[in-house]
Each structure stands twice: as structure tokens, then as C-alpha cells.
Amino acid sequence: MNPIPAARIVIPEEDRRQILAHIDEALRTGALTLGQKGQAFETAFARIVGARFAVAVQSGTSALEIILRSLGVEGREVVVPTNTFFATPAAVIHAGGRPRFADVERGTLGLSVESVAAAVSSETAAVILVHIAGLVSPETPGIAAFCRERGLFLVEDAAHAHASTLDGRMAGTFGTAAAFSFYPTKVITAGEGGMIVTDDEVIYAQALQYRDQGKEGFLTNFHVRMGYNWRLSELHAAVGLSQLERLEEFVAGRRSVAEAYTRRLAGVFGVEPLRPPDGSRSNFYKYVALLDRGVDRVALKRTLKERFQVSLSGEVYEIPCHHQPVFKEWAAGAFPVAEDVCSRHICLPIYPGMTEAEIDRVVLALQETLSTRIPSCV
């Protein structure tokens, strides 16, 4: 019985040949950073998202920080959902701001207009909306409208949301700017890397400077900002550009697997799939399901792996930010919904090319394990 991994990086053989040819060209010419491959990656990504500008950088984290620096959040608060990855509030802090954590909705794992309004103060400069697991919440347009009315910037952390849509509109186009990630586990990867997208020409111009040591231009040594080395190499861009050509195919494959899971889980006791609301088309970066209260998630994952050789991927996220020691200075508030969903959700294996037999194995293993009613250790 072959193990079923939590995720699988898919780079077909023909793509590897193409990538290697592009890398060889970069090595041969010596154009190793901020060259033609990076520019082509930016142009293609902007076109797919539907944004005027795209800036490739070395991570999704740096994409967020550059956006926040460009918006001038230093000394002010930025609203952040507490059930997000470390990088989201960390980018706020590194940009000189203060994260203000907010609770989320159970049905989307995302912010709502109500939770944003509860977190906003006179010190607030911006709101970061995180599309957890690739799901764009129907609350998004309302949050965007709220931010416009209050004079706040809306930033999308779209690290999970390549090609996810709401009512046909792409993730990354609802706010002032958005950050994407190309970390190895993401829907498409560049090995490492990130992308800023925006329609704002000022943010675009500043992002070009921030990513290259704050220089006025690539070929000068005239520094106008306190930037950093946030460049994306041509080698990474070659991988990202190749993967981008597969984006539609990969997302279609993930959606097919998700549909199969949802059908098969309908009769499984003890677990409830997180279904995208009407109008929201997830890319299913993660397939999220909520366990019944009282089920020991740790024991469940251990049993699935040891007995059935089925690995579940990491949660999104198991420890909310307000419980992370590094953020204790900003941990004030009550977040009951986030604490609940963080404590009892699981993410089933999902990747392009996953077979019907593998899907059946995952569901049957989950069903058998849950039928033992593994109690909570809490």
C-alpha cells in the first residue's frame, strides 16, 4: 500500500526540460536576476489576475511587507485575522505597524464586515484580508466598501488564492494591492517567491524600489528608500513562469478532487466539509473539514498515518496568532470563532492528479478512524 502524501508538487517532465533550458540560458548569458524571465512572469501574472501591475519578489512575506511600507502604516494599526500564518502580522510589525487581531466567520474562516468594524480604531491604517485555504469570502465586497468609507487601505493576503474567484472576480483585485506566494506547497510554485499585484502606479513604482535595496533604478546606486534585497532570481522566475502556464489545469484538478471528497463525505459521521458559499469558487489550496467537538485531532492524524498511511496536511492554522508567544504584546481581545475552528479542523490531502482510488482510501480511512470516536485529550 503506497503512502498518500499530504501534498504533491507537480512539475511534469516536459516542464522540467523547458525550465532547465531557461535556466541554462540565464547561466549562459549571466542574466541571473531582474531579467527577461522575471518580467515575463510579472506580465503573465498581472494579465491572469486582471491587475495593471505585478512585481515579482523573493517571497509572499516580502510582498506583504513591501505593500505595507508603500502604504505608510508605520506607527499605526493594521487589522489582521488571528487565524493566519505568522507572516501576515509579522509583515505589519516589520513595516513599522501594529497588528490588531480580529475574529473570523466559521463558514469561510475569513474576516467579516462585523469583525472588521469591531477591530477598527482611530489608529487603524489598513485591513489585511486573508483568503484562507483559497476561499474568497462573500463578505469581501462589503469589507472593501467599509474600508473605502473609513479611508482605510484594504490589502489582500492571497498567498493561498491563485485563481480563486468571487462572482467571477479574481482574488487580488478587491483591495489596494495583493500579495501572492510561490512557496513549494502552494497551488503553483517557483521554489520560493512572491508577487505583488496592484492597479496603483505609486505602489508599483515604490515596490520596484523597495525590492532592490531602495534604489531609484536597477542600474544605479542612488538609494531613495530603505529597501532590502527582495529580488526574485531568474532561476526562480523560470520555474514560476512554467507553473503559471499550468495554473488553470492545476486548479481544475483540485476542484475535481474537492467535488469527489464532498460527495463521499456526505455520509461520514464526525466530520463536516467546509463548502464554499454561493458565488465563491475556491482553488482548493486546502480541502478543509471541521471535526465534531470532542474528537482528538492529534490522535486522528496519527492513526491515519500509522494505520492507513494517509498523511493530512498542516492546518490553516492550528494555533491562532494571539496564542503565539511572539505576538503576546498584541494579543488583547476575545476570538471565540477563530479559537474553535483552529482547534478542530483538518485538511485532507489534495493535489492535481490525485486518483479516485486515493480519494476513496482517504475517505474510508477517515470514516473508519472516526467510527472509533477518538475522544478529545483536552
Concise overview:
With 378 residues, the chain is α/β, with parallel strands linked by helices. The chain is built from twelve helices and 13 strands. Helix 2 (36-49) packs parallel to helix 8 (234-244) and helix 9 packs parallel to helix 12 (356-371).
Outline the structure in words:
This protein is an alpha/beta fold. The chain folds into 2 domains: 13-244, Aspartate Aminotransferase, domain 2, CATH 3.40.640.10; 247-371, Aspartate Aminotransferase, domain 1, CATH 3.90.1150.10. Helices cover 38% and strands 15% of the residues. It has 12 helices and 13 strands. The strands form 3 sheets. The protein has a 7-stranded mixed β-sheet, sandwiched between helices. Strands 7-6-11 form a 3-stranded antiparallel β-sheet, with no helix packed on it. Strands 10-12-13 form a 3-stranded antiparallel β-sheet. Helix 4 (87-94) links the parallel strand 2 and strand 3 (98-102). It is globular, with a radius of gyration of 21 Å.
